[in-house]
Amino acid sequence: MIEWVIGFLAVMIGYITFLIRSSSGSHFEDNSIDAFIIKDGKEIGNKQQGTKKDKYRRNYTSEGRQILIIYGTEYGFSEEVARNLHDRITSFNSTSGTLNVEFQPRTINAKHYSSIVWDQETVCIVIISTSGDGVPPTDARDFYEFLSKSSPNMSHLKFCVLALGDSNYPQYCKTGKVVNQRFLDMSCNPILQCELVDSEDWNVINPWIDKVINLLPNIEIEVKMDYLDLEGLGEGEGHSRNNPFMAKLKVKKQLTVLDDTEDRETIHCEFDIADSGLTWTSGDALGIYPDNHPIYVDNILSLLGINGTVCVDPPVWAYITDKDKIRIMMALMKFYDLKHVKPELLYEIKASLSESLRSAEYEHLFEIFESDDALVQYIKTREVMDVLEEFSAVMSIDMTPEKFLSLLKPLQPRYYSISSSPLIDPNTACITAAVVRYKSEEIQKKKEGVTTAYLQDRLVVMDTCPVFISRNPDFRLPSNHEIPIILIGPGTGLAPFRAFIQEREMAVEHESVIGPTLLYFGCRHKEKDFLYRNELETWHRKGIIQLRTAFSRDQDRKVYVQDLLLEDGNKLWHLIYQNEGIIYVCGDARRMAHDVHYALLEIAQVQGHLSETDATKYFYELEQEGRYQKDVWVT
Ligand SMILES: Cc1cc2nc3c(=O)[nH]c(=O)nc-3n(C[C@H](O)[C@H](O)[C@H](O)COP(=O)(O)O)c2cc1C
Fold first, then answer.
1. Tens digits of per-residue pLDDT, 88-145?
2. Is residue 27's pLDDT more than 50?
3. 16 and 112 part of one domain
4. Whose CA is closest to atom 4 on ligand 1?
């Protein structure tokens, strides 16, 4: 009883402290990454960042049978899968009675490919995603280029490729498919066919890992010392995805008018990155690590009966370099994904279901486990808190904090095109973000985007948050400002174009001649969500841009940017074909970029008199030449 009272008081004190901190909008008084690290039961702040060493970066000190795992990732998922495979191979060593020499998995980012001595390798497993509009992840570009250009005979090498992607994109899993083909071209021997993974589907990934593990004992791998210096493959000194900079939010502005529930909420944020060493080029994105909502964290802990002040080890992907223990509420808020549910959480729940509570009222919960499809569908439409809430009535779950954390995915950073040019102010990176709020039809609950709600509702001016730069080398202004550019960016697709236009304006101020700069912008209502209206209209008046706007809901007939393109077909064809202009498209991949592409094809057919096939070929070639650049995403 006394223990119970003490436990209850500890939870309450922890919770009250937690709420007091949350009320400022910042959860930590000094707001530094390290402020919540616990040492000897006390919080310590402002620690120096040390050298990060994780178990995937340790050099082997004895002989073994080496396996090379290369991951290429933009958003971190391929790395998660690679680490999962690494762990499975390591645990296979300890469970397999038949082996007397261990397998030594070495898991490296594709950006370190030049450290690989291919002659020394026997088995290479590549786990790689596709990004942008069918391009490799930024860090994997050189590796991809290397594979595309060089053709050594590598017939000694056994390999397999796991290609991650999303079938909503036209270039589904392209990078993995190309990498697989290149290995085949270099006479490498596949141990498995290239496996495609749609939308992070663990129902495909787990069996693939099983197959790899089953195949390994049948492959002859020489026993030797590893030559790779894994510890030396550091991230370098600078700030990056694994070592983000704590940037101060200097300005936050609402860009839209909200007087109806249908209205779009878009914000402009300015981050101070002075003294960070971070630099960017217009077209790049800012990676931001959000905090999960403290109320969600608290609800989850309450549902599981876990005290929020319990200390746990930070996960290996945590962007703190000191690996001292942290409170579980902080771990959940900073490092774990509470939005996307891992199937393992459901399997754990399944094991704890109480059959005695099976009744008509709860039958739907038991049915989820009757087929993989039902489980996948359930997971797609629920967050971690929804799952725990729904199952709380029928499960008797008794999980340790560590067990629960092992059933969650890593919280990933989100990426926003930087909407300001470094030439204007290299110390201030601006972003333009549409705040995601919606009602889930399936469960009739209000939902929100993790990062955009964090930026809008909880991050207050003068707070800091972890950021880094994500390069986008395929989305660049030409260095020659006389080249005509056609910018097509409705909604927040406008963001990188604001930076591009700022640079063209600067060129004019420096008395350079600029070529035609056509901007096609679209939104719902002129008076409500015409982003940066004053700036755009001023640039138009000054002749910096030719602004074309489509307000889809201001008249009976819906008008979109692609309609304006068709109206301007003659002029556009002239700029593209005769004047070798560059087309840029930014925004929604599924509908907008698709419709814009078809409008361009139509223009080529009507104005250029090309057949449909030739028009398709023409724009394909433009894309290859970098004259049709896309920065698109599926929401
Ligand atoms: C902006 C963006 C562009 C993407 N482009 C493609 C694409 O062209 N083809 C594809 O198959 N998947 C595409 N995807 C899906 C990713 O490949 C998929 O989400 C993958 O699991 C991400 O793995 P990563 O976190 O290791 O990068 C894209 C995802 C985003 C966010």
1. 999 998 877 655 779 999 999 999 999 999 999 999 999 999 998 889 998 899 999 9
2. no
3. no
4. 131
Distance 217 CA to ligand 1 centre (A): 32
Q: How does strand 517-523 pair with strand 485-488?
A: parallel
Q: Pick from 252, 213, 13, 221: which is nearest to 96 by CA?
A: 213
Q: Does 133 sit in the ligand 1 pocket, CB within 6 Å?
A: yes
Residues 6+ apart with CB under 8 A from 344: 202, 406, 407
Q: How many folded domains does the chain comprise?
A: 4
Q: Does residue 532 sit in the same domain as residue 619?
A: yes
Higher pLDDT: 10 or 178? It is 178
Confidence of residue 371 (pLDDT cuts 50, 70, 90): confident
Domain hosting residue 428, numbered range: 245-289+413-473
Using the predicted structure, report yes or no on whether residue 37 has a pLDDT greater than 60. no
Identity of residue 182: R
Percent of all residues in the chain with a pLDDT value above 70, rounded to a whole number: 90
Does the beta carbon of 169 sit less than 6 angstroms from any atom of ligand 1?
yes
- The answer to whether residue 48 is domain-embedded is no
26 CB under 6 A from ligand 1? no
Are both 88 and 170 inside the same structural domain? yes
Q: Is the CB of 449 under 6 A from ligand 1?
A: no
Shared domain for 402 and 352, answered yes or no, is yes
- Residue 587: phi and psi, rounded to 5, are 140, -150
Same domain, yes or no, for 498 and 571? yes
Is the shortest distance between the CB of 164 and ligand 1 below 6 Å? Answer: yes
- Between CA 126 and CA 52 the distance in angstroms is 24
CATH assignment of the domain containing 141: 3.40.50.360
Residues 505 and 609 both lie in one domain: yes
Given 410, 428, 445, the domain boundary residue is 410
Q: Is residue 498 part of a domain?
A: yes
What is the reported pLDDT for 98?
Answer: 56
Q: Considering the domain boundaries, does residue 175 fall inside one? A: yes
Mode of pairing for the β-strands spanning 195-198 and 158-165: parallel
What's residue 14's pLDDT? Answer: 38
Phi/psi of residue 68, each to 5°?
-100, 125
The response to whether residue 76 sits with its C-beta less than 6 Å from ligand 1 reads: yes
Q: What is the pLDDT of residues 193-215, one digit of tens each?
A: 999 999 888 889 999 999 999 99
ipTM over 0.90? The verdict is yes
In a domain, 547, yes or no: yes
Q: Provide the whole-model pTM.
A: 0.78
Report the pLDDT averaged over residues 462-490: 95
Distance (Å) from CA 148 to ligand 1 centroid:
20
The Cα 428–Cα 272 span in angstroms is 5
Cα 209 to middle of ligand 1, angstroms: 20
- Out of 410, 425, 447, a domain closes at 410
pLDDT per residue over 51-60, tens digit each?
Answer: 344 688 889 9
How does DSSP classify residue 527? T
| pLDDT value of residue 232 | 80
Angle formed by the axes of helices 495-509 and 533-541, nearest 10°: 40
What single string gives the DSSP state of each residue in 80-98? HHHHHHHHHHHHHHHH-TT
> What is the whole-number distance in angstroms between the Cα of residue 284 and the centre of ligand 1?
17
